[in-house]
Every structure is written in C-alpha cells, then in structure tokens.
Design brief:
By secondary structure, the chain is α+β, with helices and mostly antiparallel strands. The protein contains 8 helices and 16 strands. It comes from Coemansia nantahalensis.
Amino acid sequence: LLENSLDAGATSIAVTVKDGGMKLLQIQDNGHGIRTEDLPIVCERFTTSKLATYDDLSRIQTYGFRGEALASISHVAHLSITTKKADSECAYRANYADGKLAPARPGGRSEPEPCAANNGTTITVEDLFYNIRSRQDALKNPRDEYTRIFEVASRYAVHNAGVAFTCRKAGAPKADLCTPHGSTAIANIRQIFGSKIAGSLVAVDHADADLEAEFRGFVSSAAHEMHKTVFLLFINHRLVEHTPVRRAIESLYASILPKASRPFVYLDLRLSPQNVDVNVHPTKREVRFLNEDNIVGCIVDSIHKAVLSANDSREYAVRGVGSRQPSLPH
C-alpha cells in the first residue's frame, strides 16, 4: 500500500494503526488519486493502472501489480477507499468485499458515493482476518505487529527522503515516525536511528557502466558501535532481501568491526530493469539479477574502500590534535 502511494506521486504519506493493524490499518496519501470510473474494478484480481503497453512488462519502472494486494485484502477484511483526483469536484468513497463493490450498510447502495476529502487516496483496512480465525491466531501480539509496520514505514522514509512520512497509533497524540517533506536520507537516519549511529556512517557512491549498475548509500565506519544489524537494501527502489549481498557485506564487517558490534547498511542499488527478475518470490521480498557475483563483489569492494578511507582520515585527525605542529612562517 505504501508503494501504491509512492507510484501515485505522493509527497505525504500517513500510516495509522490500531491494535497492531488487526483492528485498523490506514494509509493516507496526497497522490494523484483513482479515477471514479476505475473504482468498480480496483479490487479485482490482475487489475493494474501501471501498464500503458504490452512492452512495459519487460521494463517495469513502478512497483508493479499492487492491485493483487487490494484484491486479497478485500477477501479477509473490511476495506474502504476514499479518493479524489485534482480535477474532480468531490471525492468518492467505496466499500469492498470479495473483490467487488459492497454497500457500507446492509440494504444500502454499493456504488461509490460522493464525499468531502483532500486530493489523494485513503485506504482503510478494518478487522483483518475477521473471517479466518487461524490466520488471526498466527499473528503476533499487537505490539510486535506495530513494530513490524513501523520498521517498514521507517525504511521507506529513509529511502524516499523527499516524501513526508508519519506512522502513529490510532488516538495517540504524537506520531512515532514523523519525517519532513524535502528531508535527506542521512537526516532521516539520524531522526529514526539516532545521532550516534548517523554520526558513525560513511557514504558510498559508485557506478559501473559495464555491469549496468550503480549504488549509493550509507554504511558503518570502523568506529561504529551497535549490537544489532540494520540492513536496508533497496533494488530499483523496492525494499527487498538479497542473501548474497547481505552475507558478503556481513563477512566484510566481521573483519572490520569489534566482535560485539554489528553493521548498519543502507544501500540504494539501481540496475537495468531488464536485468532484474522481481517475480522469484510470492511477496516480491526477494529478487534475482544478472551478473550477481560481479555486482556483489563491486559493492563489497566499494564499501571496503570507503571504510578504509574514512578510518585513515580519522587517524590523521587524531594524530594532528595530539601532536605539536611546527609554526609556519608569517
């Protein structure tokens, strides 16, 4: 749902949660909205507004077929969508059940109803898994589920630093996550993870034309102290897990950091879309790409050089402070 908001060009995204998302999960954005005539099919399977031509399938630049998520949610929760395009006179609200429009109340009309709202889209999911007790029981306690939601929102806030993100518990006077519009990645890291962690990071930035790959981000320096690994990997703007990249980086830091310390890694990896397979995992949490070994090696080499360079600069500065410098002639 966050990715749909980003695809819609949103510059502000607000997440509201009640009981770890089991009672309420709401995503509100100021994106371009959904056309009124599309509301009847928006929760049907295979629906997407993100393809203009058949050839777009081989060079997808968006987050992909997120309509599948809405279809699934409509079968296991009470789902409503309120949306308004900038050129519309009013907003429209629609309710869904099992992929189809449904009345808000028994005996009511199922067609979208006009209402007042700001430009953008608000998706409200209530009573998650109300009709599948086994799935409900499989969820962890509300605190743990909220922590998972917060972690996802905060990672997207770091990567999409120009977009304002908030994440709060319903009824809470203050948001747990609140990043401003037009911020920077390092500023958001400082706000979310703390000044000590942000102050111990070094920047990496590298491009390789032969591999059709470029990456940038912030990673731990040799002076970094943290007891839990934080690994934020975005490949073509998608938050993913990639075991070869993670293992290679963790192996590098095992030889750099003190034994009890763990690295912080935020990596924004951009690859040619036709070289990436985003459909190897049912939830798209993992991807595969061409020239994997070479690209992983390139990432590790660049991080190693950045860490060594930062460490050399730090040692030089420390020596300079503690030693007598010869006076310069006037």
